[in-house]
Amino acid sequence: MKRKGLSFLFVIVMMILTNPFSWASDAPDFYDLVDSHGSMMIFIDPSNGRIVYANQAAVDFYGYEKKMLETMDVYDLRTGTSYDRVPRWSELSSRDRNTYTVNHRMADGSIKTLEVQSYPYEYGGRTVLFSILEDITQRTILEANNKKQTNIIISGALISIAVLLFIAEARRKINEDIEEINTELNSSKDKLQLILDSTVEGIYGMDREGLCTFCNQSGLEILGYESQEELLGKNMHYQIHHSYRNGDIMPVEECRILKSIDEGIPAFVDDEVFWRKDGSCFDVEYDSHPQKENGEIVGAVVTFTDATEKRKIQEELQYLSFHDPVTNLYNKTFFQEEVKRLDVDRNLPISVIVGDINGLKLTNDILGHEAGDDLIRAAAQTMKEICRSDDIIARTGGDEFTILLPSTTLQDAERICERIKKSIESKKINIFKGSISTGCAVKTETGESMDEILKLADKRMYLDKTLNYNTVSKDQLKNLMSTLHERSLREKSHAEETARISGMIGKSLNLRPEILKRLKDAAYYHDVGKIILSDEILKKKGELTEEEELEMEQHPIAGYRILNLFNETVNIAEIVFAHHERWDGEGYPKGLKGIEIPVLSRIISVSETYDFLTRDKNGEMLTKDQAIEQIEYDAGRKFDPMVTGALIKIKDEI
After folding, report:
1. pTM of the predicted protein model
2. Of 235-239, 562-566, 595-599, where does mean pLDDT reach its minimum?
3. What is the CATH number assigned to the segment(s) 477-649?
4. Domain spans, the chain
């Protein structure tokens, strides 16, 4: 219904756009219609991506004040898209209709996936993109989950089909071989032996008493014998089939090979072992085929294969169906089955702990998913060390764990929570200090629903995460900077000096106190993105190679991504992103020019260059006057002339 509504709206809009005068007399004002409509609509200036108008539905959706939203550009909202992949607005404004999908960040920090349909439209004497937005977040998540489920089902089905086809082909081959063997039994002993020895499967014959009458070459090799003479006339049950896998003796009356001879019925077995000459055993699959002569059973032919690898694959598939491959803990599927099994009165009270790792996204974004997996594994190991052997620990989400504790009070569960939190917080995984949010709940009465208990524990975990969010975020950011400065003391003093000099320039430019604080913060964190660099590049004192320069140029982008992850630094991310842009447009990462560069970024560029020029580098450094002379020389090319002038003004105070 919603999509039909959008289609109808587009028809109305296009009629207004293509024939505006015919609507003037008998239709409501276009802008009143847009502003009162329930669909989200915005006008975008294609020359710079700025939002010039947003209707009330869009304002409510994004969560910003209308005035603020109409001063923002789509770069402020877009997330998950790097700056080198921005849309080409000129193309969008040249087409009659555009449809594309994009991720936008809301005022509360959440990410929404939008489908955008836009048309060029004359507004205020200029062409804008009239855009209608539809929130498709849930649809996108559902499609991704459905695709994942489908892939899992298809993969499982293909594996099952492959195994079944393998078994069917093997059996067909064995049956064909047996038919050939039976046909040739009365013709040529030498020819029969040749056929027997050409098969991959082991084959041996036994008479009515179970004594070996022949064994082919494959059978000898599988069993570890060198010639038939070692087996001929021997009782094959006592020779290769005498015991179970655990070493317990298998009584003759339980031998299914001998039973097939006694009953005259073929038998297929895939859950037993045969024993080799050296005393070791192996998983086996065998068929026992009773043989008749003149209507009387005279023995049997047994075909067999070493099923060790097949059994191993089956066990691995079985294991993976109930375990998480990263942590080797149980997965969500197994956990849900265990909840049903353990939800009985004798296990009351049943407690539940839900834990969610803090900082996993930060770790993945900065160090990669392998480092994120290290963090997940460390948390899992901590839980295994603290919980009891009969507690059920499962990884039930990307960064979420759930623990089921039968016969455990809420107080005991809370104590376990505290032990888990303290243990994880005491560890440093990669460059980050561990942290986890937890929540507990308990079922004490028969009539209580375990689903509700799980929801309550989950709710309490999110409350813990919310209440401690600022503390955790500050600790993570502080730890990030501490790690960078431990790796390079030069970076520590550079950050402090750049912040100090930037503050002095900001004061000389009469910046307001809140802007001045923002400047100092951005200057202190301006090189936080260098955390991604190797020690070789970070600590290098000489000139960087071309390849190393390319690596170094990634640090403003990495810093932008890092600072956007924290509420307290999201307002300085853009400043840090642009601090290596040049006044003449020859900088990086976007090649901004002149006043396109945020003024605070321009101040940091001058400040950090001054600190760099006056810093001792292998015994080489400039005096204050020489450094200022160099910066003044580059004013109008690399640096903002106004900021350069401010530096000159305060040179005696630095």
Report:
1. 0.57
2. 562-566
3. 1.10.3210.10
4. 2-135, 170-312, 323-467, 477-649
Domains 323-467 and 477-649 share a fold: no
CATH of domain 2-135: 3.30.450.20
Q: What is the DSSP letter of 618?
A: T
Would you mind telling me the total number of residues written for the chain in this entry? 654
Q: Alpha carbon of 196 to those of 181, 220, 258, 458: distances in Å?
A: 7, 12, 22, 64
Residue with tokens 């070789």: 536
Domain 323-467 has CATH 3.30.70.270: yes
Q: Which structure tokens are listed for 173?
A: 């081959």
Let me know if 203 is exposed, middle or buried by CB neighbors in 10 A (0-12, 13-18, 19+). buried
H or E element: which one contains 298? strand 296-306
Class of domain 170-312: alpha beta
pLDDT in tens, 521-531: 999 999 999 99
For residue 379, the surrounding DSSP H or E stretch is helix 369-386
Q: Check whether 485 has a pLDDT greater than 50.
A: yes
pLDDT of residue 25: 36
In sequence order, the 6+-apart residues with CB closer than 8 A to the CB of 250 are: 237, 241, 242, 243, 244
Cα 445 to chain centroid, rounded = 38
Task: Locate 287 and state its tokens.
Answer: 């068929």
